[in-house]
Write a structure and sequence with these properties.
heterotrimer; A alpha/beta; B mainly alpha; C mainly alpha; A: alpha/beta; Rossmann fold; 3-stranded antiparallel sheet; globular; B: mainly alpha; Arc Repressor Mutant, subunit A; 2 strands; about 5% strand
Amino acid sequence: MIKINNLNFGYSKHQLLFKNLSMQLSNGHIYGLLGKNGAGKSTLLKNLAGLVYAESGSMDVLGYNPAKRQPALLEQICFIPEEFYLPSVKIDAYVKANAVFYPNFDHPYFTSLLAEFDIPVGQKLINMSYGQKKKVIIAFGLATNAKLIIMDEPTNGLDIPSKAQFRKIMASALTEDRCIIISTHQVRDLDNLIDTVIMLDENSVALKASVEEITDKLVFKRVKEIDETVIYSEPSLAGFNAVMPNFHKEDSKLDLELLFNAVLAEKNKLKPIFN
Amino acid sequence: MEFRDNKAIYLQIAAYVCEHILLGKWKVDEKVSSVREMAVTLEVNPNTVMRTYELLQNKNIISNKRGIGFFVAEDALKNVKDYLKTQFIEEELPVVFRNVYLLNIGFDELETRYNTFVKETFNP
Amino acid sequence: MNNTFNIQRFGLLLKRQWLEFGKIYLISLLVALGVIVAFYGFALWKAFTYADSFSPRDLNFREPLFLIFGFIFISIIASSYFAHLGQKPKAIIDLLIPASTFEKFLTGVFFTSILSIVSFLFLFYITDLAFVSKLRGMYTSVEQITPYVHNGKEITSIDHIAYFFSKYSGRDKFLPLYFFPFFVTSVFLLGSIFFNKFHYIKTAICVMIFSGIWTAIVVKSGEWLFEGKIMIDQENRNMNHMSQNTGEWLGVLLIVTLTAIFWSITYVRLKEKEV
């Protein structure tokens, strides 16, 4: 579905943000894109949508080169940016003007999504709060039935009930022919929703593995003492939260925050495990 | 449903389904929530639910009828009990034993307490 | 599906852009109408209030008003069209609309060069029609004698007070002037996508600098070529009519070429626009 090959990208020629980044993404998954501030999460998403141009390398999104900005690809992309703008019109006017560009737009689905998000249809977009507007563009984006869904920090600005609604909606939005990529800092909002983790660090992909693969190879648990098998640990109330190689085929719950810190701190120990 | 911290999500979902079957909410030959419905209810990735359903299928707790969906298997009740029993013996009993040993609790005391518990909880 | 141009998609895009800009556009039309009416009213109030106080000279303000205000109006409209692409959130939404870059560019040309010029002409025409008709009704005896050239023959027309857009208004046609508005809008449209902020001011400054350089080059090269020389080919001077015509056509050619160049640069800039 998406193939990135040796992508080199930088906002200035001398300082590359990505060096030879390669990656493949396939349908039927919700990818969680993680990384420190400035690691290039948003930039990678923009590359996928053709909003920025790489220095070199090739990119194939649904068989198209996104840099060409062809309508046939654009109508298959739903991009929810972190900061967005909506004109000061009513929702139905907005939909009337924009939905026509998406041949698979599903009006009843859009209405039901709005209902789920508790958004009154007749309201003017300008009078809405940030969170409400965000819900409108998420609903619109999903109703386009685009195959590639890209979301940059979608839960930012959503209140607690909306986050739960968002998770439900995303769980139902994942179909076999769709690929969903969500970048986030709010790991806890999404950790059960993500099935594959992509971590960016130091100009490239530091880790890309499914939750199943991660918990197959690593075990996350509380231990009283740290021994040499522990890859990374953080002190907690009852000892340590530790990441260890999964020698005994133990089942554990992936702790994304712990994994995130482990990847940043102990990249050299983790690399051989995943390759 | 609240997920706990230390157990893989797909196993927690399995426990959730088993509980429904044990409590009689889902009876033999009845349809189980579809993968998508379950994912939406629990706010988890459908692929995780799929993994749970594959596990439960292997344990003969649910069965897949092609094109229709998942159904509670014939011997589900027995298989659920077997499955939960193994799990309990492997995972929870060691913790109990450890405390019984550390706190010096006699088997007599345990038995009395067990009997009172059963009486109070299940036959009030 | 055609990824470069599709007439139906182009129509939808026009509709969508109208929803976005229509309101502001109509407001600016209203303001422009107000300005034109104010000028007419200010110049003619005496003629309306006191009998026999009208002189055809009172209408001489129309040419400068038409040229200067027309320039300001179309250049402001043009320099605001792509201005929002300087703002990240708005640019993302616009670039991702499933229409081709060419269609987005053509929409820009339509709104800034065709719609704005046509609507300005229309506003000026109806205002002039209203005021001059009223004057003609009041001052039936005023006659205006206008010599003009038609098919190479000098004709003198005797008319009442002339409408601005009448062919008897006595102005010499200067062909390049008809193409000049397109040139102006193409320059300011380019400015609107070239700069991220203060589009109008920056474009205006650039125009001034360039026209300054241009004039300097023409004057200097003229001095260099002709300094100390006298014209000996007196014959050619008599072919005044002929050479004026060719000169005009050369002017037209120059303006059309420049307009086409500016439009092409705008298209390329739009294609390369990154967020």
